[in-house]
């Protein structure tokens, strides 16, 4: 069964496909525009995205949503991580956290759905903290200020393989793959 | 023709109804849950909300979306004003703007749609600036830190009538009412 991973981000697709390939899962890229709703959690956003993608493709779909949470605030920015980052950048985040607790966690949810199966979500988290300054390495969004628990380096300062050990996205994907490969033992 | 103003906020309904009543527009309250999408502008959000409300009610609908923009940042927080306010509060906003330009504007868009009419949007803006400190008056969201152009007081420090003179929401509503009352001269 072919799965369509729906994302506007080609790099994200490549990253996920590298993993799914190891398990013989046939993953195809789709960059169709799906409805992204303002909802409270990554899981809810991913499920709504999966339903939207399904309506367009009528094929098995996999989607993803990632957010970040700062202990200093209540449910912020959560699934609105991108909007906040694009608005105020790492500098703005450091400013907001001045003199406040620096704990944080990344959360990723994948959602999988088929025309015969309601969306099912898989969540992965990575706890850590926000660095005192921005890593001097050009990197993706919050990666240059996020230090995972048990590390002294930000995600930006790690190799892809090192990051994968901690990564919320890798954990959520792993949950999905376990479920999916077990399920394949049964007929559709 | 009866219009359904769809909002979860009863106070907003009352505020709008007070104005539409003056023009003999029959406004009813509906608090159905509509899909709120992550989009770039208040106008796009309002149009998507109107379509979502129409799908449920199959009646003429009016919806509203309000955002705020800080000159110091690019398109931020825009239609995500509520998420940012709930996350970091007025204190967080003042922190983010420390040492930065304080210009800001409020934007409201109403969208109107009927089963026979594609949504049409009406936009109102109010320019002003963000105060150096929070008004000591309990008030709605950004009102305690927003000073409209030509004033020295924040929205919180004004009476409802004073605020209405400047208000982005009042302007957008006025645009809608002009269009709607002119249109009523013609049969449906």
Précis, in short:
Two copies of one chain form a homodimer. In chain A, strands 1, 2, 3, 4, 5, 6 and 7 form a seven-stranded mixed beta sheet that branches.
What is the top-level CATH class of chain A?
Answer: Alpha Beta
CATH architecture of chain A: Alpha-Beta Complex
Instruction: Write the element-wise H/E pattern of chain A from the N-terminal end onward.
Output: EHEHEEHEEEHH
Instruction: List the chains of the largest interface with their residue counts.
Output: A-B, 19 and 19 residues
Envelope shape of chain A: globular
Oligomer: homodimer
DSSP helix fraction of chain A: 25-40%
> What Rg of chain A do the Cα atoms give?
17 Å
Q: Do you know the CATH topology of chain A?
A: Maf protein
Total helix count of chain A?
A: 5
CA distance, first residue to last residue of chain A: 10 Å
Percentage of residues in strands of chain A: 25-35%
The biggest beta sheet of chain A is recorded as: 7 strands, mixed
Q: Structural class, from secondary structure content of chain A?
A: alpha/beta
Notes on the protein architecture:
The structure is a homodimer of 188-residue chains. With 188 residues, the first copy, chain A, is of the alpha/beta class. Chain A has a single domain, classed as Maf protein. Helices cover 37% and strands 27% of the residues of chain A. Chain A has five helices and seven strands, in the order E-H-E-H-E-E-H-E-E-E-H-H. In chain A, strands 1, 2, 3, 4, 5, 6 and 7 form a seven-stranded mixed β-sheet that branches. The first copy, chain A, starts with a strand and ends in a 5-residue tail after the last helix. The A-B interface holds A 35-38, 73-77, 80, 83-84, 86-88, 92, 95-96, 98 and B 35-38, 73-77, 80, 83-84, 86-88, 92, 95-96, 98.
